[in-house]
Amino acid sequence: MKYFFLAYAIIAALVIGLLPMRGEKSPDTPLRLFPDMDDQDKLKSQKPSEFFADGAGGRHPVAGTHPLGFLPDGQTDLGGVPEYEFGGGAGYYETGGIEGYYSNGMPEELGLNDDNVDAFIRRGMEVYNVNCMPCHGESGDGLGVAASYGVPGIANLTLDNFKHPGYPDGRLYDVITNGKGNMGGYKHNLPLRDRWAIVAYVRALQLSRKAPLSEPSIQAAFEAQLKEEQGAQ
Ligand code: HEC
Fold first, then answer.
1. 181 pocket-lining for ligand 1 (C-beta < 6 Å)
2. 10 Å Cβ neighbour count for 66?
3. Any atom of ligand 1 within 6 Å of the Cβ of 201
């Protein structure tokens, strides 16, 4: 046993002696047993790069793409409100609540009026179809493609308990922002305005669910679709 401890002490001293002390600076290339991702090819925005023919490290956006929150012409979306906003304030617009209580209605920061509300709801449809449809389905019934792969418990947004007035707009906005249960939030992915546009679109989905076919606008849309389908054949 005595020799074991002696051998142990000598080996330990050797190992510690051979390894340089952590934190010490050395001009030598370090010996790395597990390089992880310490060295990797990367581009820095204001630095040259030999990889690209033009020698620039910073790249322009790929043709046909544009940064989140901006339109292709570089303008922000839908009338004057800064689009590239993900959070910040503590008001109704940012949180969906007023003094701790969910409230109803579209916040005035959205600057909605008769001229732009149509485009706003269409924008809601666009972002809903990208972000929510896979789970909640095109009509909001909770039967999106994820459900067919077995994701359980996806809410049917057309049920009465998600409608006015029992389920306020601010609460819907809060679920989109922060998530709930198995659903993740979108506060890092969708700008404020887009989250409110989804609220408006989900309300439209809920209403259209109960609208009678005799309603003139629905009848017109139905006939237009029929015509389109017949034209395609
Ligand atoms: C990955 C699948 C998934 C996506 C994508 C998703 N949801 Fe959900 N959503 C769920 C699930 C699951 C629940 C049930 C959560 C629970 O109650 O635990 C839910 C619940 C909800 C609820 C009801 C919350 C409540 O109060 O009970 C609303 C409203 C909702 N989602 C809206 C949306 C909207 C709007 C989007 C798009 C921005 C979206 N969801 C995207 C899976 C998803």
1. yes
2. 13
3. no
pTM: 0.70
CA-closest candidate to residue 204, choices 131, 78, 142, 117: 117
Distance CA 218, CA 214 (A): 7
Ligand 1 within 6 A of CB of 200: no
Fold of 111-211: Cytochrome Bc1 Complex; Chain D, domain 2 (1.10.760)
- How far is Cα 183 from Cα 175, in angstroms, rounded to an integer? 8
> Tens of pLDDT along 24-76?
778 887 788 888 888 888 888 788 998 889 998 888 888 888 776 666 676 66
CA of 82 to the centre of ligand 1 (A): 27
**Helix (H) / strand (E) containing 17:** helix 2-18
Ligand 1 centre to CA of 77 (Å) is 25
Taking CB atoms within 8 Å and a gap of at least 24, the contacts of 165-168 are 165/104, 168/96, 168/102, 168/103, 168/104
Q: Name the residue at shortest CA distance from atom 6 of ligand 1.
A: 132
Residues 169-226 pLDDT 10s: 999 999 999 999 999 999 988 989 999 999 999 999 999 887 777 778 778 888 888 8
Each domain of the chain, given as residue ranges in start order, spans 111-211
